[in-house]
Amino acid sequence: MFKITTVRKLISLKKSKKFLNILIFLLVISLLYTGRSLIFAAWVGNRPIFRYTLIKELEKQGGKQVLDALMERSLIQQEGSKANIKVSADDINKEMARIEEVVKKQGTTLDSALSLSGMTKKDLINQIRIQIIKERILKGKIEVSDEEIKSYYDTNKIQESFETVKENIKNEIINLKTQEEYGKWIEEIKAKARIFYFIKY
Fold first, then answer.
1. Residues in the chain with pLDDT < 50?
2. Residue 159's pLDDT is what?
3. 3-class secondary structure per residue, the chain
4. CA 181 to CA 174: how far, in whole Å?
5. What are the tens digits of pLDDT across the range 131-184?
């Protein structure tokens, strides 16, 4: 009786081990399939191109620029928090509507323009948020006089009347000055910030 019970237990144990092995195998296959894009970038013939290889190549080509851009974005957000700058949904929606109007005049849609740029709406919203923070930080440092606007109008020989384009010219000069001021400001912030590099490009 003891021997029969023991044999039955061994058979049962072997069956459960076999079932467990099959279950683990299926789980591994399932994880590889669902998470394949985390491991593989592509499969060419009978050879894989691993995602790690793709990332390394991309880092060689533009790693430094991308890292610098991410660092600058982080610094802008931190400086915005220190200055208690809040960007509301209304601020973002107004800028989105302005951008949509611009691309519409160019004979396309925002979705098409984003697709061509390889961007999503979420990417654009993040860019708008950063841009608004940057503009608000630098706002007090930028002034545009009527003489500057008139000089720009005359220099560029604009055909429309001065009053019609005055506001557009002012915005253009503000954008140019913002870019110039931003370059100086971000270098000062970088010099003060504690930045530690773990990757060398």
1. 1-3, 7, 10
2. 76
3. CHHHHHHHHHHHHHHHHHHHHHHHHHHHHHHHHHCHHHHEEEEECCEEEEHHHHHHHHHHHHHHHHHHHHHHHHHHHHHHHHCCCCCCHHHHHHHHHHHHHHHHHCCCCHHHHHHHHCCCHHHHHHHHHHHHHHHHHHHHHCCCCHHHHHHHHHHCCCCCCHHHHHHHHHHHHHHHHHHHHHHHHHHHHHHHCCCCCCCCC
4. 10
5. 999 989 988 788 888 888 888 878 887 878 778 888 888 888 888 888 888 989
